[in-house]
């Protein structure tokens, strides 16, 4: 029997080791697997490379993980957010490395990584400072830069429904990076508000097929980052 | 240089209204954060326009009536929005397939500087201690068919934002098609800035003095 369900977030992230590359889903708070991130803080792995579109807000979730000092490098498109000084302080103090990647290039690098494609050419960044150090080629008279596919040891993502085969369905714009990150990591961990019996999810509406998911953990009432920030909460 | 003259020309709302007049019926449109977002509410009645937000929604509607909404239904500015009937959700790679693949017809963005050849600078001052953040701006200008900019004609210090060459780092070279400022509507033509329309009460000399490159008048303003 295939049963990918794990009892707790702590068990779901227990084997993330020092120096691991970890993709973390979410665009801002939407889709942020906040309970898995907090479990990773409790677990204490260090020297992590984290891939996320942003850099968190307040001092919970991703911002708290950065503040804990466990992250040595962030691969990101927009590491600014209202109400968080965590990343700017680390960055200005030289305590974290930033690889700045345009949002669409970040998404396509992850998609390519998951699809077994090591590199691709995109028009994005041609003629800008972010093109520096990249190979440029011309196709049909237009210039493109080469970007590398991106993979990771782990992906931590959040969805609304999962079954024990790892089939996932998301909620609205919380889908964002979840489906592509699931494909690009050696081990994908999904937290789901609801875990349903196999067969209950209509195959026509499954967004992430279970082959891309290794562990599912139920978090029945997941926190919303904006609620925690509004209450002034700090993790841990 | 000149001081800020808030009372001259179009207000921010009027700039958004003017930009909205040019949004064609049936188009797929991505609006940037800030003044560009306001374009949606001024698109003339009788035109159906589908709004894309790059975090994964086609068919974005206005903010929810109450403060409630769903924290998992947000726009690219991370504010809560609604989805209109006929909307769809998708992951980030598909969202940028729409952008980079040329499927979005129009985007409207803010600007720090625009050059006479249509170079856009809107993501970084280039200062060494600034935290760099680019988001989807470079993808939008690389892939969207018509790139339009809404910006004040001059900075708060009175320096022109329409210039011969951008001093700030580029978002993309030769990408801008049309600019809506508080003073005028200006196209990027083969020879640089071309006046399309003046704001009420503003004359050509006034705009030219505040433009950091040559400004031409072309007969027949629609390209």
Write up what this structure looks like.
The complex is a heterodimer of chains A (236) and B (223). Chain A has 236 residues and is an alpha/beta fold. Chain A has a single domain, classed as Glutaconate Coenzyme A-transferase, CATH 3.40.1080. Helix content of chain A is 23%, strand content 27%. Chain A is built from seven helices and eleven strands. In chain A, helix 2 runs parallel beside helix 3 and helix 5 packs across helix 6. The longest helix of chain A is centred in the middle third of the chain and has 13 residues. With 223 residues, chain B is an alpha/beta fold. Chain B has a single domain, classed as 3-Layer(aba) Sandwich (Glutaconate Coenzyme A-transferase), CATH 3.40.1080. Helices cover 16% and strands 25% of the residues of chain B. Chain B has five helices and 13 strands. Chain B has a ten-stranded mixed beta sheet with strand order 4-3-2-1-5-8-10-11-12-13. In chain B, helix 3 crosses helix 4. The radius of gyration of chain B is 17 Å and the shape is globular. The two termini of chain B are 32 Å apart. The mean pLDDT of chain B is 93. The interface between A and B is large, with 52 and 39 residues.
């Amino acid at each position: 029997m295939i049963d990918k369900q794990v009892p707790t977030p702590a068990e779901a992230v227990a084997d993330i080791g020092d120096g691991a590359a970890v993709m973390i889903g979410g665009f801002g708070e939407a889709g942020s697997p906040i309970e898995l991130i907090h479990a990773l803080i409790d677990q204490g792995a260090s020297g992590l490379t984290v891939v996320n579109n942003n850099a968190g807000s307040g001092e919970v979730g991703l911002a708290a993980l950065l503040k804990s000092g466990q992250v040595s490098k962030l691969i990101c498109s927009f590491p600014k957010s209202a109400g968080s000084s965590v990343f700017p302080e680390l960055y200005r103090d030289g305590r974290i490395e930033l690889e700045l990647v345009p949002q669409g290039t970040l998404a396509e690098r992850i998609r390519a990584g998951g699809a077994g494609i090591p590199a691709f050419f995109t028009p994005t960044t041609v003629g800008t400072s972010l093109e520096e150090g990249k190979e440029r080629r011309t196709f049909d008279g237009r210039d493109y830069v080469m970007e590398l596919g991106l993979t990771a040891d782990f992906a931590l993502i959040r969805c609304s429904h999962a079954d024990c085969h790892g089939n996932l369905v998301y909620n609205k714009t919380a889908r964002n990076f979840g489906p592509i990150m699931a494909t690009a990591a050696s081990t994908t961990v999904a937290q789901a508000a609801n875990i349903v019996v196999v067969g209950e999810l209509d195959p026509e509406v499954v967004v992430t097929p279970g082959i891309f998911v290794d562990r599912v953990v139920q978090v029945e009432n997941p926190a919303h980052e904006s609620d925690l920030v509004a209450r002034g909460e700090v993790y841990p | 240089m000149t001081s800020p003259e808030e009372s001259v020309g179009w207000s921010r709302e009027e700039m958004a209204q003017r930009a909205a007049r040019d949004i064609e019926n049936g188009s797929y449109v991505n609006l940037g954060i800030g003044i560009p977002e306001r374009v949606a509410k001024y698109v003339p009645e009788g035109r159906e326009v589908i709004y894309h937000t790059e975090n994964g929604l086609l068919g974005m509607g206005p903010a929810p009536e109450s403060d409630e909404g769903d924290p998992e239904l947000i726009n690219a500015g991370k504010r809560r929005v609604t989805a209109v009937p006929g909307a769809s959700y998708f992951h980030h790679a598909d969202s940028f397939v729409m952008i980079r693949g040329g499927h979005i017809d129009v985007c409207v963005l803010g600007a720090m500087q625009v050059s006479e050849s249509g170079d856009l600078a809107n993501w970084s001052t280039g200062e060494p201690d600034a935290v760099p953040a680019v988001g989807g701006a470079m993808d939008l200008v690389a892939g969207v068919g018509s790139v339009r900019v809404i910006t004040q004609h001059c900075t708060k210090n009175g320096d022109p934002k329409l210039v011969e060459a951008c001093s700030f780092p580029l978002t993309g070279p030769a990408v801008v098609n049309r600019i809506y400022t508080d003073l005028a509507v200006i196209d990027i033509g083969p020879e640089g800035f071309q006046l399309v329309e003046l704001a009420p009460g503003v004359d050509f000399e006034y705009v030219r003095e505040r433009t950091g490159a040559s400004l031409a008048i072309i007969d027949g303003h629609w390209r």
